[in-house]
Amino acid sequence: MVLKLYSSLFFGPGGHAGVVALVLAEKQVPFEDIPVNAEVYKHKDAEHLERQPFGQIPVLDDNGFILYETRAICRYIVEKYSEKGPSLLPGPSFEERALFEQAISVEIINFQGAVVPIFVASLKKKRRGLAMDVAAVEAGVEILVQRLEVYEKILSRQKFVAGDE
Ligand SMILES: N[C@@H](CCC(=O)N[C@@H](CS)C(=O)NCC(=O)O)C(=O)O
């Protein structure tokens, strides 16, 4: 049975489900996209909470095996379909793996941690017909710019955040 990915364009194509879709595409694993209408809070209804108790997107359903949390889903896909597409996990050395874990933590905390508050104060409000919180957006952008300057520094020395591979 083909994998099912519960997603929602309400959060934009660059949302967490987009990351999973990108990994599935890289690994050349076919999947069925199941849109959840977040505009009318379908991600908070009993049916979705059964899959994702925090009421968030994305969720993967692999023949009844339900998995949430974007990075856990990505790792699952990459390891389960190791023979398909390019290898997306570093290694074999402990150091390469550790740098990969470091990059993932940086992405969750420093990148997502800065981007999500901007989204919540701007596009998310707009899509709900509310006024944008300009002060929060400006404060968020300031933090994001500082973080991206660090990314620039890292990427001036190596090809990718986790190294050169
Ligand atoms: N830690 C979760 C975060 C997922 C997340 O924040 N998804 C957003 C959409 S991109 C969402 O569902 N937001 C609604 C909410 O948090 O109530 C993951 O990595 O999958």
Automatic annotation (TrEMBL):
Q: Establish whether keyword Transferase is in the entry.
A: yes
Q: What Pfam families does its record include?
A: GST_N
Superkingdom of origin? Eukaryota
Q: What class of enzyme is it?
A: transferase
Extract the GO molecular function terms from the UniProt entry.
glutathione binding; glutathione transferase activity
Q: Which UniProt keywords apply?
A: Transferase
> What Enzyme Commission number(s) appear in the record?
2.5.1.18
What the entry lists under Gene3D superfamilies is as follows: 1.20.1050.10, Glutaredoxin
- Gene Ontology process terms (BP): glutathione metabolic process
**InterPro entries, per this entry?**
Glutathione-S-Trfase_C_sf, Glutathione_S-Trfase, Glutathione_S-Trfase_N, Thioredoxin-like_sf
Q: Where is the GST N-terminal domain?
A: 4-85
| GO cellular component: a single term | cytoplasm
Respond yes or no to whether keyword Transferase is given for this record. yes
Q: What is this protein called?
A: glutathione transferase
User: What is the source species?
Assistant: Mycena chlorophos (Agaric fungus)
